[in-house]
Amino acid sequence: MATLKDIATEAGVSLATVSRVLNDDPTLSVKEETKHRIFEIAEKLEYKTSSSKKAAQARKQSHHFMAVYNYRQEAEVNDPYYLSIRHGIETQCDKLGIELTNCYNNEITATGNKITGILLVGRSNPKILAQLSKLTDNICYVDFSDSNSEFDSVDIDLTRISKQITDFFIEQGFERIGFIGGQDQPNCADIREIAFAEYGQLKGVVSLDDVYRGEFTSSSGYKLAKEMLAKSDFPKALFIASDSIAIGVLRAIHEHGLNIPEDISMISVNDIPTAKFTFPSLSTVRIHSEMMGIQGVNLLVEKVRDGRALPLQVYVPSKLKLRGTTK
Question: Which residues form the HTH lacI-type domain (predicted)?
């Protein structure tokens, strides 16, 4: 196999010049005829640059990823947030030519091909994690993170979002803020709820009596809002854990004869397409959930490619979108 030294000897130039020419160094000042001669000799000797070697190696490396979702597939119908995550995973796998197996409700599907990476979407119990670890140690959490874990993760900073919404309502002059949310697992509070309750109590604007928890569905939001509105006294500002829940809350408030945002204001999370077309349109925090799926795939590929051992935590950005449900 030809080396840089072989090319330098035949071209009559230094080893450094050959290296900089073949790596297209923009700072190199050398005659065009010299560059041309070096490329001709490299082609004649069938020299492969490091980039072409890496590309060839990457082509040889075939991947088969498994995406394990901690919820039933029906959840994607009730909340497009979950559908968007899966779409990001599938789109990126298709783009990179990666075989993908989807498993729902933490039920592992047997496959004939070796698994080279696992995307664990949402929180999973230790038993499932131990089972998956037997397939590969190349695991990436999506929509969940654990600072003590040895695995990569792609997540959203729900604690920051909860504080941002609380601060916004405080700046608007509200002295009492309620919460309507959901849970992914029985008797397990969502990070949004925990962060909101802790921060809101610290600020003196949140009482646990104003925290309502059900499921991440519109029907649950409707039921919980009716329960809240049935009380003689209720908060006039609401933090809603998701747009899907908020749609049900909106209906309940309208049926109660209240005006939004004059009588009650609300901000939700996700910014699903429907959020712009509710009445009034939802003020919400835009989360790029599809990007979480995409970056999860990228981390698995990059870890194998570079032999990286250090786990990475990636947070996708979010942005507060103020619309009709806030003043």
Answer: 2-58
- Residue ranges in the chain modelled with pLDDT below 50: 55-56, 58-60
How many domains, in total, are found in the chain?
Answer: 3
pLDDT in tens, 164-184: 999 999 999 999 999 999 987
Quick check: is 80 in a domain?
yes
Q: What is the pLDDT of residue 21?
A: 82
Task: Report whether 117 contacts 300 (CB < 8 A).
Answer: yes
Q: Which domain holds residue 14?
A: 4-58
As a whole number of angstroms, the distance between CA 162 and CA 181 comes to 12
Q: Taking the complete model, does pTM exceed 0.90, yes or no? A: no
The Cα 66–Cα 260 span in angstroms is: 44
How far is Cα 221 from Cα 243, in angstroms, rounded to an integer? Answer: 10
Same domain? For 182 and 88 the reply is no
| CB within 8 Å of 243: residues ≥ 6 apart | 81, 268, 269, 270, 271, 272, 274, 275, 282, 284
Q: Which residues are 313's β-sheet partners? A: 153
Q: Which pLDDT score is estimated for 218?
A: 95
Give me the residues paired with residue 318 across strands. Answer: 287
